[in-house]
Amino acid sequence: MSELRYDPIRGRWTIIATERAFRPHEFRRRDPDHPGDVGACPFEYGNEETTPPEILAIGRDHRPANGPGWQVRVVANKFPALRVEGELTREGVGIFDRVAGVGAHEVIVETPHHMRPMADMDAGEIELVLRAWRERLVDLRRDPRIRYALIFKNHGREAGASLFHPHSQLIATPIIPIVVKGELQVAREHWHRKERCIFCDLIHQERALGDRVPWETDQFVLLEPFAASFPFETWILPRRHLHDFAYSPDETLADLSRVLKDFLSRIRTLLSDPPFNLILHTAPSSHPRIGQPQYWTTIEHDYHWHLEFVPRITQIAGFEWGSGYSINPTPPEEAARYLRDTPSTGRESRVESRE
Q1: Residues linked to residue 310 through DSSP beta bridges, in sequence order
Q2: Of 31, 50, 30, which Cα lies nearest the Cα of 40?
Q3: In this structure, are residues 221 and 354 in contact, taking their beta carbons and an 8 Å threshold?
Q4: What topology is assigned to 3-341 in CATH?
Q5: How many other C-beta atoms lie within 10 A of the C-beta of residue 193?
Q6: What is the pLDDT of residues 42-86, one digit of tens each?
Q7: What is residue 339's predicted lDDT score, i.e. its pLDDT?
Q8: Is the dihedral of CA 174, 180, 182, 187 positive or negative?
Q9: Mean pLDDT estimate for the chain
Q10: What does each C-alpha distance from 204 to 208, 213, 333 come to in angstroms?
Q11: Span between the terminal Cα atoms of the chain, in Å
């Protein structure tokens, strides 16, 4: 029988439509993305002059900047949503508010290989991408105008990727995004009531139950959220309390790279390489703000960074838009079982059995 489930962290309801009972092979199949003309891709070796000047390059050693030899390259987005240049101004427009479009919009080119998605990379290559994420977060935190930097990866046209070449993006904003702000508020309230991190409580509970945990490693646990909004929505969380991805040590990123290799390989096998979004939620900038909620005063104790993975295998329709609810035809317990039972190609993470 179908049921409604509530997620206290995100403050939203999901209808788990068990009577629909969608299995992985029943989700709609899309036409494969066309890789385009490799030679014309701006992210290819030799085309560095077609992008804005690089902000960061990993793996080039002593070769000249803005040329070949890199393994991961970060550049400003050629068509940015926000720009670093300019003065941060805020004003009221009647009952509305307007803030100058100051921030940053960057592209992390994850590999020089056009036909090498993250699921095909080895763990060492993925680790370099994660290090680039960390370095850009640390650097952007130095700008007091920026309150939050959201890192995300769009894979496939239906997930918003306009270029085939593997890449992720970073958009830094002068306000904290509403979704993250909601998580921060819930985490802070839980800490004030119980002096415990709500995410740590979630991890302990789900590991004890086991039916929504596909697998875990020494440092990370994968969860299918109790009230998952989408089929095979997955959270990847550090098992120990870590509030800020920017402070992640190298060994943590190394383990996370193996987890991502394993997970994305299984997802590709299980769902036939679906379009997906991968989003990093981490602590905001710690620059103090006059008259604003003091998120940063207890953030070290109450927030917990995590990755959220959403495959784009269902569509949002009128009911979802009108109600704010989601309809998920695959119970998260079933999704966890499918993931556990799906073999990983080139699996590198040490898996702890949930049996």
Answers
A1: 277
A2: 50
A3: no
A4: HIT family, subunit A (3.30.428)
A5: 9
A6: 999 899 999 999 999 998 777 788 888 999 999 999 989 888 888
A7: 96
A8: negative
A9: 89
A10: 6, 11, 17
A11: 27
